[in-house]
């Protein structure tokens, strides 16, 4: 237990997978492989889009933003997750914990914004194709990227400072292999009302708003597609959205599920929380490059050329 009167900075203990300590070496190999594939896949996407001038289009610029965000998200969680399973290093100082949760949450909200921008890209391309080039200009895309970054960083920026002021006396064991705001907040013996309300506001104004706008954009896309007479043209239009829909589901499903479990699932199994946490952190960066490589002909062809050199 942590003492509320202690002048020493608190040390938190991260959690691996309880009851599976005997197979930690095998789990570490699995997680290390996931990280390697994620980082190589996203780096390859970035390299291909940067070096191929024919891919310097809005759709691929947004894809490069997604790949960069996934790459940074992998880097922010890798040290603590692999540290637990490789070296059984469970301790993390409050300062390191706050830095990690700042990057995890900021990058998650930036990724949510990028997925929204990709939905907007598909909406303009399908519903108003004649204005596509004039709406999604390079300066406008750059401004969108800056706004996404400022929103993600700005909304999370106060949280580490609020958490740093708290006294921690309710134990020091976190239920994941990395730090999250809602986890650290629950360990405080101070009044966490402000953090709880602000955290809910941030979730609603980012993930909640973004997912609602993405849903709205696809309702309008479907309405436009269904008005197309040719069945072949309908299929072609919808096919351009498949990769993005997969990315949206891969990101929002575990994220919303984990948030619901943390806020309302007090009686749920700890193992469910832990496994959902790994899915939330590891699966989107792993699967996004694979999905886009398989479903986007230009990316697939370019990867094939690179690998066959």
From TrEMBL:
Membrane topology annotation: Multi-pass membrane protein
InterPro entries in UniProt: GPCR_Rhodpsn, GPCR_Rhodpsn_7TM, Olfact_rcpt, OR51/52/56-like
GO cellular component, as recorded: plasma membrane
Location relative to the cell: Cell membrane; Membrane
UniProt keyword list: Cell membrane, G-protein coupled receptor, Membrane, Olfaction, Receptor, Sensory transduction, Transducer, Transmembrane, Transmembrane helix
Location of the G-protein coupled receptors family 1 profile domain: 41-292
Superkingdom per UniProt: Eukaryota
Annotated GO biological process: cellular response to lipid
Chief location of this protein within or outside the cell: membrane
One function term, GO molecular function aspect: G protein-coupled receptor activity
Annotated TM spans: 26-49, 61-87, 99-120, 141-163, 197-221, 242-265, 271-292
UniProt similarity note: Belongs to the G-protein coupled receptor 1 family.
Protein name (database record): Olfactory receptor
Organism: Nothoprocta perdicaria (Chilean tinamou)
Name of the coding gene: LOC112954759
